[in-house]
Design a protein that fits this description.
Helix content: 25-40%
Strand order of the largest sheet: 1-28-27-26
Number of strands: 28
Strand content: 35-45%
Distance between the termini: 25 Å
Structural class: alpha+beta
């Protein structure tokens, strides 16, 4: 992930002149991008690779005023919807490139944003004075299916999830509307901050809103009157949000930076890139999630390579795997140390018991018997230590060691002393080999 001083360089689509981009959307199944321009045009570009080559595909027509929003039909992308400051909304058929539906006075004021309710097949639009309308474009109706007027200032963003419509507004509130029953569920208290962008995370359990102050407001599902958490850290306005996965999202800020953020726990993870201090207005993820497109207050569209996020995830998984191996190795070492301590204590106790019995009997043994007993005790101790160190030692080797121990009981002290050094050396050699095998397996796994 790039730092603030060393951002990843994007591929650029330069529109030239004063063609400031207002609207942006990406096709749900193809490498196509739709743009709405300040001069009223709506353009369709095809891009290759990760934005390396862009080609003008279709001029989708021109509104009388700025084209503020463009939206592909979300399932197959068979239609493109456009909305304008001239209060109009259009539908362009992708197969023919012609206008299939046009309402010139869809709202009383400029139309600011669009979204789509897939289950109901309805287009949703929001305007500059807080109005929200639902449209059935399939039947070519010129009249809205429903009209909602619950806000006092502009609708900045709209989001549909699980049959609920969320509207962020410049009047510092978030509204929740039940689309199935066509009724307002809740409208938050004054959040003392303009709400500018929306996203849903945590498998639908959390709704996030970007604000003018830069704070991300987190709402828990069903608790709509006030936010349940606040994510502080952005120095300026958060005007765009794009979900990466259920735990993370990308934020576009008026300081020109696109940041990767973790939500609950709340943490700024890094900077994806910069728009050279131009405020980031909108961002969209491509259908295959390889590319992120973003626009700012200039005539450029930037394409960001999203594979950098996958590389970061792979590095994190590798680091996690190494940590788990180290923990497992430490736990195994602790278990083996515990076994050795237990065996040593048992051997010491057995030797003390045998010594006590010999002293109470008052009998004396010959030097050869003493040497033999000492050799046998030493053999037994070494056998038990071998079992502890190797756990799954070779059974044939253990039987051989037992036979050597028995022979030591009938041998003279000099014979026992000659055999012990060789035997210890064999045990040490075997233990070293097992340690080397274990080490090779460990590094091989790494």
């Amino acid at each position: 992930m790039a730092s603030d001083e060393d951002e990843m360089l994007p591929q650029l689509l330069e529109l030239g002149g004063d063609s400031e981009v207002f609207g942006l959307d990406m096709h749900p199944t193809q490498d196509l991008i739709a743009l709405g321009l300040v001069d009223g045009r709506a353009l369709l570009y095809s891009y290759q690779g990760k934005g390396e080559t862009c080609t003008l595909n279709t001029d989708l027509g021109t509104h009388k005023e700025a084209c503020r929003a463009v939206l592909f039909e979300p399932t197959m992308g068979s239609r493109v919807y456009t909305a304008s400051s001239d209060k109009g909304i259009r539908t362009i058929d992708m197969a023919t490139g012609k206008v299939a539906w046009d309402v010139t006075d869809a709202h009383d004021e400029a139309v600011n944003c669009l979204t789509f309710w897939e289950e109901g097949g309805l287009l949703v639009s929001g305007d500059d004075i807080g109005g929200v309308k639902l449209w059935d474009c399939r039947e070519g109706r010129k009249k809205a299916v429903a009209s909602i007027q619950k806000h006092e200032d502009f609708i900045s963003d709209l989001l549909v999830h699980e049959g609920m419509l969320f509207g962020a507004s410049g009047d510092n509130t978030l509204s929740t509307y039940d689309l199935k029953h066509r009724k307002l569920v809740a409208r938050t208290m004054d959040q003392e901050d303009e709400l500018l962008s929306l996203s849903v995370l945590k498998h639908g359990k959390k709704i996030l809103a970007g604000t003018q102050s830069g704070v991300l407001l987190v709402y828990s599902w069903g608790e709509w009157m006030n936010c349940t958490d606040r994510f502080v850290g952005h120095p300026e306005t958060v005007e765009a949000l794009v979900k990466v996965d259920e735990e993370t999202l990308l934020t576009g800020s008026s300081d020109g930076l696109i940041r990767l953020c973790s939500v609950l726990p709340n943490k700024l993870l890094g900077v994806l890139g910069s728009h050279d201090e131009f405020p980031v207005e909108r961002m969209k993820m491509a259908w295959d999630r390889r590319v992120l497109a973003s626009i700012a207050h200039d005539s450029l569209v930037r394409f960001w390579d999203m594979s950098i996020l996958e590389e970061d995830e792979e590095d994190e998984e590798d680091e996690k795997g190494v940590e788990e191996d180290e923990i497992e190795k430490k736990e195994m070492s602790e278990r083996n140390s515990g076994r050795r301590r237990k065996v040593s204590a048992a051997v010491a106790a057995a030797m003390a018991t045998n010594g006590g019995k010999e002293n109470s009997g008052g009998s004396s043994s010959s030097s050869s018997s003493s040497s033999s007993s000492s050799s046998s005790g030493s053999d037994d101790e070494e056998d038990e230590e071998d079992e502890d160190e190797d756990d799954k030692g070779d059974e044939n080797g253990e039987e051989g060691e037992d036979e050597d121990g028995a022979g030591g009981n009938s041998a003279s002290s000099s014979s026992s002393e000659e055999q012990e050094p060789g035997k210890k050396g064999g045990q040490q050699k075997g233990s070293k080999k097992m340690r080397m095998t274990a080490a090779e397996s460990f590094f091989k796994d790494l």
